[in-house]
Design a protein that fits this description.
By secondary structure, the chain is an alpha/beta fold. It is built from six helices and four strands; from the N terminus they run E-H-E-H-E-H-E-H-H-H. Strands 2-1-3-4 form a four-stranded parallel beta sheet.
Length: 159
């Protein structure tokens, strides 16, 4: 199962989700991340947070959704602007869900305030990823409409 975490810039939230998912996922599951307008670099605070959590992010890079090595089974948007974009045609009728998370890169205040925004985004994404990975196999491979409803429900969870 391949999951694509999609965000416009692919520098913070989608990177946090990709690395966290791959850290927690069982064999045979893989997360990718991409952006419709990638910044071209991963936010240093995202990398520092992942390292502090013991999560390897060495394979993470800010990249375009046009550069995906595989067609995902599920696309999860993590920012509002990406949720409204039309996915590239080559993705076909992929299952989509929106898991909106505030953009920590837009946080203001002291360095501690900004770090706290990154931690909040990570906690929300991790809680949702753990909920997805806890779904029974029959639900993951069953009816698409039921899986979509469950993904949408998970997208409402907070940390």
């Amino acid at each position: 199962m391949n999951i694509l975490f999609l965000c416009t810039g692919n520098s913070c939230r989608s990177i946090l989700a990709e690395a966290t998912f791959n850290h927690l996922a069982p064999a045979g599951w893989r997360a990718l991340s991409a952006g419709s307008q990638p910044t071209g670099e991963v936010h240093p605070r995202s990398l520092a947070l992942l390292a502090a959590k013991g999560i390897d992010a060495s394979d993470c890079a800010s990249k375009s959704w046009d550069a995906l090595p595989v067609t995902p089974d599920i696309v999860i948007t993590v920012c509002a602007s990406a949720a409204g974009e039309t996915c590239p045609a080559y993705l076909g009728p992929v299952l989509r869900s929106h898991w909106g998370v505030d953009d920590p890169a837009k946080a203001t205040g002291s360095p501690a305030d900004i770090d706290a925004a990154f931690v909040r985004a990570y906690r929300v994404l991790r809680a949702r990823i753990e909920a997805l990975l806890a779904l029974p196999a029959e639900q993951l491979h069953g009816e698409r409409a039921a899986l979509k409803a469950e993904l949408d429900r998970i997208g409402q969870l907070s940390a």
